[in-house]
Amino acid sequence: MVGALNADLGIRVDRLPAPGETVAGRDVHVLPGGKASNQAVAAARLGGSVRLVGAVGDDENGRMLREHSAAAGVDVSFVAVLPEVPTGQAIIPVDDDGENAIILVPGANGAITPAGIPAEAYVDAAVVCLSLEVPMAVVQRAAARALMAGARVVLNPSPFQPLPPSLLDATDVLIVNELEAGQLLGVPVDLDSGGVEALCSALAPHGITRLVVTRGAAGAVVIDGDEVTQLAATRVDAVDTTGAGDAFTGAVAVGLAEGRSLAEAAAEASVVAAFSATRRGAQPSYPTAAELAEFRAERA
Ligand code: ATP
């Protein structure tokens, strides 16, 4: 997993402040986050052999993130500690309806350079997972290195930004939510009426024939060549869907690395993501393989 590690500073508020307004906050808590960090922890909890590639500052948040990832079984030896910048932070007020606003402070994530990641980071990787909370030049270099190492590239273009053609050319599997699918096409996408075909046509020139569009509680659409699978979400009483998308991506990466088809990997991932929605937080909500087996057995 190549990308960002963030300390998520969550704050409960009665309502999100309007511009210029001051509101009272409560229940301030710091949790490990960042897309690559989340995806790495999700994959490692499931038993995947995971290397996390990124950077933190030489500070308390950086130590917390490294320790938390390592405790989940992630190899953090390629998480650089940059002395001159703080660890990335996401400041996230959440109101009583669960609505949030996010201020992302890139810190060390924004200071990674393409040359700053050693080529050894990619050795023996079956799958390299990329997300976009680090500079695009780093993502592009990582994709090129992944190909050189014989790994398959899974791209989760979030937060969305225009994608260089060379990055798309290097991508084996694209994982987007519905909003990102629309941003990719430049128009809102209707998956029930022509959206799948429009996405496939836009991606075909880049050789991408495998993609997943996630749809929150409505499940996901999996496209693998001519095969289109509508995946229903596992029904749960969701308490917090934060990081469900990262749980999904991490689990897909594990499935692909284990040689499963995209449809099989995504079906498993949707159970993992649903499990994560039944617990608070992102990383603390991700199941181990044993917890997942129990969750399945309860539903069988
Ligand atoms: P986020 O940015 O919140 O992490 P996302 O927008 O990237 O998420 P979603 O489409 O919201 O991704 O969710 C990813 C997957 O998680 C869905 O395809 C689904 O399988 C599962 N999921 C999300 N929300 C729920 C829910 N309420 N109940 C069951 N499964 C869910």
Automatic annotation (TrEMBL):
Cofactor note: Requires a divalent cation, most likely magnesium in vivo, as an electrophilic catalyst to aid phosphoryl group transfer. It is the chelate of the metal and the nucleotide that is the actual substrate.
UniProt enzyme class: transferase
Pfam families, per database record: PfkB (PF00294)
Family, per entry: Belongs to the carbohydrate kinase PfkB family. Ribokinase subfamily.
Activation and inhibition: Activated by a monovalent cation that binds near, but not in, the active site. The most likely occupant of the site in vivo is potassium. Ion binding induces a conformational change that may alter substrate affinity.
Keywords attached to this entry: ATP-binding, Carbohydrate metabolism, Cytoplasm, Kinase, Magnesium, Metal-binding, Nucleotide-binding, Potassium, Transferase
Quaternary context: Homodimer.
Pathway: Carbohydrate metabolism; D-ribose degradation; D-ribose 5-phosphate from beta-D-ribopyranose: step 2/2
Entry keyword Cytoplasm: yes
Localization, UniProt: Cytoplasm
Function: Catalyzes the phosphorylation of ribose at O-5 in a reaction requiring ATP and magnesium. The resulting D-ribose-5-phosphate can then be used either for sythesis of nucleotides, histidine, and tryptophan, or as a component of the pentose phosphate pathway.
Its EC number(s): 2.7.1.15
Residue positions binding substrate: N6, A7, D8, G34, K35, A36, S37, N38, E133, D246
UniProt-annotated binding residues for K(+): D240, T242, S276, R279, G281, S285
Lineage: Bacteria, Bacillati, Actinomycetota, Actinomycetes, Micrococcales
Domain Carbohydrate kinase PfkB: 2-288
Reactions this protein catalyses: D-ribose + ATP = D-ribose 5-phosphate + ADP + H(+)
Catalytic residues (positions): D246
InterPro entries: Carboh/pur_kinase_PfkB_CS, PfkB_dom, Ribo/fructo_kinase, Ribokinase, Ribokinase-like
UniProt name for this protein: Ribokinase
Keyword Cytoplasm: yes
Cofactor: Mg(2+)
Gene responsible for this protein: rbsK
Residues at which ATP binds: N177, T214, R215, G216, A217, A218, G219, G245, D246
